[in-house]
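Researcher: Structure for this, please.
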Amino acid sequence: MRTTLTIEPAIAQEIRKRMAERNVTLKALINEALREGLMAMAGKPKKKDYRFKIKPHDFAFRPGIDLDKLNQFADDLEDEERVAKMAR
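Model: Predicted structure, token format:
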């Protein structure tokens, strides 16, 4: 359906901001906003698709660092820092 809308300047600014944040078209953003608004007016809960994106990271620990003893390693570093501060 094609129609013409007059949008308040403050709302138009918010629309442009959200378009940039989400990297979507005006059409997609307006349709989503209207859909959610109409559902809210009807008292229906929003249907959200929560998809988690997991990006693996290679920590590249050096040989000799035991991953099971990282807390001990952090404590040792803190102790060295305290000794260095006390020596100053």
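Researcher: Any notable elements?
Model: The chain is about 55% helix and 0% strand. The CA atoms of residues 58 and 67 lie 13 Å apart.
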